[in-house]
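Dear colleagues,

As part of the handover before I leave the project, I'm documenting each prediction I ran so the next person doesn't have to rerun anything. This entry is a single chain, and its sequence is reproduced below.
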Amino acid sequence: MVQRRRPARQAQIEIFNYFMTLIGERRATPGEDLVSALVHGEIDGDRLSDIEILFNCFLLILGGQETTRNAISGGIDAMIRHPEQRAKLVADPSLMPTAIEEVLRWTSPITHIMRTASRDTELRGRQIKQGDSV
């Protein structure tokens, strides 16, 4: 088990090193990219720390990978289950932008994200207390 973790851990170290280098580059020479926006942006007058920028970059990669994989597999499944819709798309490729939006809606590629209630509330007749994970 430990052997399998080493390549994954090494890859994570390498991506963190890449982003730390990129953060330094964007601090010196901003561009029109998301890392530049994170480096130079402010929230209530405060800038993000390097570690906050680093983990935001990492989460963007993880989130993009997760949603893309789930949307693609869900879209393929939908086309298999609804061949008439696939036929329409094959016959008219101009429908692709709408099809992509529909696949995202249909598949709900993000299914397990927990949130912490910031205040007591009620949702559909159920009481949610501040601090509850939902």
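The chain has five helices and four strands. The first strand starts at residue 42 and ends at 43.

All the best with the project,
I.
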